Structure formats: C-alpha cells, structure tokens
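hiii, so i know i said id send this last week but things got crazy w the move. better late than never?? heres the sequnce for the chain we talked about at the cafe, plus the structure i predicted for it. fair warning i was half asleep when i ran it
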Amino acid sequence: MPMEHGDQTDISSREVSRIRSVYRERERVLPRKANPDQTNQGYQWLVREYHDRLERILRERLPGSLSNCRVLDVGCGYGSLLGWLHGLGIPAANLFGVDLIPDRIKIAREMFPDFTFVEGNAERFDFPDDYFDLVPVFTVFSSILDPAMAKNVAQNISRVLVRDGAVVWYDMRYPNPWNPNLRAMTKRRIGELFPSFTLALESISLLPPLARQLGRHTDQVYPLLALPPIHSYVSYPRRRLSPPFTAPYENAILSR
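okay and structure toks below
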C-alpha cells in the first residue's frame, strides 16, 4: 500500500530525532574542544590530503573564477569546510551551510559571522532552484539510515544545484561493524540517490582509525599506506553534460 505523506513525515521526524540523539551523545563523549583529531598527526595528514585534492579539482574543473562560485555545505557542522573554501577566494556572501544540530550551527555562526548558516532538515531547506554551483556532502548520507529521508535530501540538493554544478561527496564506502549508526555508501547507493547524475568515483583517504595510530611515524608511513586497497573512501559525481569532475574524501562525487 502506498505510504501517505503524513506517514513519511513521521518517519523522517523519527530519523531526524535519531540523528540528533547520536550526535548529542558523540558530543557528550568527545566534546569539540577535547577532540584529539585536532592534534592527531595521522588524522591531520588525512585532512590535508583531501583538502589538496579538492583544491586541485576546484581550480581545474569549475568554470570561471572561484569568486563567482556559490556553495551550500549540507551537514556543515561547525563550518570549517566553508572557512577553508573562503580561504581559497570564495566570498563570504556566497558561502552557505545547513545542519540539523543546533549547537553546531550556533558555533558556526560565532566562528564565521559573515557566512549564512541555517539550522534545519536538508529535506526541506528554502533556497531557490538552480542557485548553487557546488554542494559538498561530507559524511552526510552514511549518517541517514532511512532510505526515504536520504532520497528526499538528494532530491532537494538536485533542485538547488545549477545545471552545470557538482556535488562533492566524501563518505564511508565500507561498513563499520562497531558503529550501527552508519551505513556504507556504495556506488550503487549513490547512483540510486542521484540517478540523473554522472558519477566520477575515486578512492582517496586512508582508513581514519589506521591514520590515527601512526603518531610520530606519520610522515614516513602514511604515504606508504596510502594505496587504493587500504583507502576507505571514494570521490564524487556530477551532472550529465557538465565537464568531468573528480573529488576527494571518504566517498564520491556527482554531476548532472
């Protein structure tokens, strides 16, 4: 029997509550200020790796100047990716972020008062159609366990993306048996969420749990381990008819 609209709203509401609960517990166990990843050598190497790859992709593939690029970071967290993009030359007025977690949006607004941050569900944000050139979704869809909600988010992203724009995807492509709140985002799942997009997938990041253990040997060991069989992530897809695009981080990229 077809699902009524109200029923789907209830399911999405429950999924939103579950996601918020998971992140509240994560913040309780590991507060942002005490997060060891901020000083962990292996993890910081991983971050530099995907930043370098993303910068190269943006400068090679995005038409025109970055100063004309309008960005929506879905699942923006504390706004650090937008801050990094601002450092590449994208104006503050062109940088937007949306996140479900109120505390993260509060901190993002304090850290980057000139950017636009929206607290809310990415199924229903109110940005105009064909408005953004680039939509990063970093570790977003692996956190959404409800397929219907994931589909709604993907459709809303497609709506606000310009015709020659791109979705930059970074996410887990392997399951984590110790974390039931994540699901692996395979090529098939990505294609189902964005069926009208062309996918360009690339494995990039070393498994974070392994990177975190490298310690003072990071500079010597990370490059040796950074091989496709050990990498845990893919790249990204883009829209059909748009110029080829590739991206880094944990999962994939899409373009129409």
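btw The domain at 5-255 is CATH 3.40.50.150 (Rossmann fold). thought thatd interest u
miss u guys!!
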